[in-house]
Amino acid sequence: MTIAVPSYRSYIDKTHNALAISQLVTIKSVIERYYLENHRYPPDSEAEWKAFTSNLPNNGKDPWDNPYVYTNIANAGPGIMGRVRADKKLNPINTQYDLYSKGKDGVTKRQVSNKYSLDDIILARDGRFIGLAADF
User: Fold this and answer.
1) Which SUPFAM superfamilies does the entry mention (predicted)?
2) At 62, phi and psi to the nearest 5?
3) Using an 8 Å Cβ cutoff, are 108 and 102 in contact?
């Protein structure tokens, strides 16, 4: 039991992470299609994003039943840079929009290298990286 339970938990965590990555890829595709059709990224106000996510996998919720977090950077005003996700040097990790899951613990911080963000599943470098924040 002492070996089986931790192994099983590790397997479940890896499965949830893989599912979140897959869902982020799908959501990214939907966002990009929206951009092509509307010449702008989807709005990120709570009501509009909630309506947008109703057509997404699991209604826009990650494997831990938390909503995916989306921030429209491209269409936002000058104060947006204080809200976007950043790397360990506080450089923004995206230029168009942020999209991520808060991960298993449901807690996150702006800086992806923060200990509370390491389990987040993130989209970074404008989609060139999608995965665990600890691997970024």
Assistant:
1) Pili subunits
2) -80, 175
3) yes
Which tokens sit at 121? 């599943």
Residues 6+ apart with CB under 8 A from 42: 31, 34, 48, 49, 52, 70, 72
The DSSP H or E segment spanning 100 is: strand 97-101
CA distance 136 to 129: 8
Reading the chain (136 residues) residue by residue, the pLDDT tens digits are 677 667 778 788 899 999 999 999 999 999 999 999 999 999 888 788 777 888 887 888 999 999 999 999 988 877 787 789 999 998 999 999 999 999 999 999 999 999 999 999 999 999 999 999 999 9
- Hey, where are the domains in the chain? 4-135
Task: DSSP letter for 41, please.
Answer: P
Q: Is 104:16 a contact under the CB 8 Å cutoff? A: yes
Closest CA to 131 of 32, 23, 40, 58: 23
Which CATH number is correct for 4-135, 3.10.20.90, 3.40.50.720, 3.30.700.10, 3.40.50.1970?
Answer: 3.30.700.10
